Amino acid sequence: PNHLEKLPFVDGKRIYVTGYSIGGAVALYTAALFPQNIAAVSSFAGFTPMRTDTNNKTTGGNKRLYSWHAMIPRLGLFGETGLEEAIPYDFVDLLEAIAPKPALIYAPRHDRSNDFEGVMNTIMSARPSWASKPGNLKVFTPATFSHFRNEEIITLASWLAS
């Protein structure tokens, strides 16, 4: 993000990150880890709670993050030993770190890769962190599958314009 701020056509106070699927998770990590650089974040079908995403699930569980995509290699220390509950942080912590900045979470109800109930529980647990600016957390839960098509693009554009 610091590189972007040096460009003459970039307003450093209005850098937003967005992502779909694993990119949605990366967007959340970026916003949580670089709060001084990121003004807002949107995540489309971007996460499921890691502590409950065991490797015996048909989606592959956390193995997607530490083996298939090599995004968080050390997560395998927990996933390969069945110790998911001992993972030291989860997406609720990332969301709380982002708050009260503007955030859009788009969680399809029929997402094959993410546990909708777990995602909603995570959002509800993190929601109090937006108490000072409750309107900054927007959550959409369409009765669709995970994809990034016109409906999602229009939702993102409307959110960015607001």
What is the topology?
Blueprint: H1 2-5, E1 16-20, H2 22-33, E2 40-44, H3 63-68, H4 76-79, H5 91-98, E3 103-106, H6 116-126, E4 137-140, H7 150-161
Parallel strand pairs: 1-2, 2-3, 3-4
Helix pairs in contact: 2-5, 5-6
Number of strands: 4
Shape: globular
Instruction: Let me know the largest β-sheet.
Output: 4 strands, parallel
Give the distance, in angstroms, between the N- and C-terminal Cα atoms: 23 Å
Please state the average pLDDT score.
94
Pick out the low-confidence regions.
none
* Structural class category: alpha/beta
Gist of the model:
The chain is 35% helix and 11% strand. It has seven helices and four strands; from the N terminus they run H-E-H-E-H-H-H-E-H-E-H.
